Amino acid sequence: MTQPTCAFACHDALSAYKLSCSVVNPEGADGNHLGDMSMPAFITSPHCYATDDNFLQSVAYCVSTHCLDVPLSDLEYYWATFLVGRIPGQPVPKESYSTALAHANPPPTKSVSPKLLLNTTTLVSEQAYMAIYNADLYFEQMETRQSDFGLVLLITGAVIPVACSLLRFVPFPSAFVSRFNAYFINPPVFGRRHREPLYNLAFVPSRGQALLIAYFIIINVVLSCVDYRLAWPNAYYGRPKDQLLVYITNRLGLLSFANLPLLVLYSSRNNILLWITNWSQTTFLLLHRWIAIICTIETCIHSAIYLHIYLGFGQYASESQQPYWEWGIVATLAMSVLLPASVLPIRQKIYNIFLVSHFILAFVALIGCYYHIYHRYNLQYGYETWIYIAFGIWAFDRIARLARLARNGLRTAEIAVIDEDYIRVDIPGVVAQGHAYLYFMMPSWRTWESHPFSVMGTMINEAQKVTNSTTYTDGNTLKITVMDKKASREHNSAISELLRFSTQEQSAGSIKPCLTFFIRTGTKGLTSVLRSRSRARVMVESSYPALALGEVCKAPNCIVIAGGVGITAVGPLLRARGPGRVRLFWGVRSKLLVEAVVNALGIDVFTPDIVGEIAVGSRLNLRAILEREVVGDSETVVVVCGPVGMADEAREVVCELGWKGRNVKLIDEAYSW
Question: Which superkingdom is the protein from (predicted)?
């Protein structure tokens, strides 16, 4: 910013003089050097500085007496590059530093008052020089330090998830890992709710998530409070208090900028950290919300302190008319509106409106930040780099989305009604894993809306398709339990009756690539519209891995707990099961959904070896199931995907078993926002 500082101090001390080519400043604009709070009554143009002999010779003589340890080449570079200013296309001084110094002959012997016109070569007051030197030197030190602090935020925000994820490859004793997870990772911070929102306002993070949230809060607070260096005399500030306030507000402003790339990264569908780690997108979205709170608080304090400073200096009227101030207001207001407009009740009630408004406000905030810096510093000091990184991450995510869409093209989805709650959607010709975002080209003005759905299957037998020609009605309650290979004939005959429909439908047919989804429909919105259609044009954005199949399939014992349509997320696990033991416990309200799922997955998946219990119309006793199934010293992986109450109950029981020394691991397969 000001290297060499001695040369910049000479320039800043002499730039306050009125030159013969200066003009009256009717509006009282800001001064020419960084951090200057004065409002001179005249304006000196770059051309004036570049051609005025008295100014050039005075600066050259000051530099020669104060920059004794600076190489001549560095002084010549400073002279040609920064003496006039930093604006691109500015004029070059009419003579070099060495030439101007040679013309300062005889050397000046007295100092001209800054209140007078500079019409001769002058000495610089040592008191004024030292005050400006301190101001330039310590301001740059603070700006450099806060840039370092910003890098700490950005780098640790990317590295910590990777480092924590890599710990799974360290051969810690399994009993230790199970107990550690049960105490420090899986339980909610307080109470028993994790996926079920607290008072329908917010989610209670798990203890592992809370540790990360605490880190981001603590590191931002610490970096906002440490390592401030004050110097006196100081030309920019009337009191040490003013100097400290400027340093604090600038620190907060830069930390908020450094948080922006993390905000965009954590909210991205194509988050590179999702590919590297084994963390869920739900965790990154939770961190995204907390970092947004921190970033917004820092932005608001930054704006409030500068408002206080300029009101105290009596400069609010003029500063508030500057473009950088106006764009700063735009960014601050956009970020301030984003927080209350993103609370859980709003996301639940009007999710699509929230999503569009969230995108627009976030984009406006980033644009506001960019132009705030552009108009304040003319892109001279690199503050805009943080914005470039954020936009780069955003652009990568959007380009990757378009590439995923283009790969699959426009397809026709075949829709079949299963019962009053569920439908089946088949999209031929597409293969994907995990979950996919579907863009339905409905007769609607909201065709840009995308909705994530778990992929049940990727292949289909043409003879297995379910059509709307069959009407499903079922009011009975059925509970089937198959304990093991030696299950009784009664159990086997019961499950055979349950699978009767699927057996009849699975005749010979051609096997073709096809995405299969089972969707629970609502009374309004997109899913309700889908019920009334047999076909719909759709674009598929895929694939987004969800369940860590490789990790789960290697476990010697796997317990799969599903609730309702949550079976779609774990269905691929049942089909791709490894050599270990897999047991399915599924609580579902509709027998017809069971028949449809069996029809999609195939009878070979629903064998007595795998099906532990399918409870139709009744509730699974998760505590009894887990206490019975989690046995022995070998690792047991519990995968749960279902309603929030079921998931939280499974989490609670798994943690209790971990406390007791059982070797158990929990995978909560969920997608929440």
Answer: Eukaryota
Q: How far, in whole angstroms, is CA 341 from its chain's centroid? A: 17
Residue 303 tokens read as 């704006």
* Element of type H or E holding 536: strand 535-544
Q: Which fold has domain 409-668?
A: Rossmann fold (3.40.50)
pLDDT tens string 413-440: 999 999 999 999 999 989 888 889 999 9
AA letter at 87: I
| Token pair recorded at residue 469 | 């020609």
Beta-carbon-side half-sphere exposure of residue 373 (alpha carbons within 13 Å): 19
Beta-carbon contacts of residue 252 (< 8 Å; ≥ 6 apart): 224, 298, 299, 301, 302, 305
Alpha-carbon span 584 to 586, nearest angstrom: 6
Note whether 46 and 85 are within 8 A (CB).
yes
SS3 562: strand
Whole-model pTM? 0.88
| Contact status, residue 96 vs residue 80, Cβ threshold 8 Å | yes
| Bridge partners of residue 118, in order along the sequence | none
How many Cβ atoms sit within 10 Å of the Cβ of residue 236?
22
Partners of 558 in the β-ladder: 582, 637
- Burial class of residue 459, CB neighbours in 10 A (0-12, 13-18, 19+): middle
Write down the domain spans for the chain.
5-124, 176-229+245-403, 409-668
Which residue from 278, 276, 160, 194 is spatially nearest to 665, judged by alpha carbons? 278
d(CA 206, CA 193): 9
Reported as type and span, the H/E element at residue 435 is strand 435-440
Which tens digit of pLDDT belongs to each residue from 3-59?
Answer: 999 999 999 999 989 999 988 877 654 444 444 444 567 888 999 999 999 999 999
pLDDT tens column, 320-367: 999 999 999 999 999 999 999 999 999 888 888 899 999 999 999 999
User: HEC states along 390-449?
Assistant: HHHHHHHHHHHHHHHHHHHCEEEEEEEECCCCEEEEEEECCCCCEEEEEEECCCCCCCCC
Q: What is the DSSP string of 166-184?
A: HGGGS---HHHHHHHIIII
3-state secondary structure of 424: strand
Identity of the residue numbered 230 = L
* Distance of alpha carbon 114 from alpha carbon 14, whole angstroms: 8
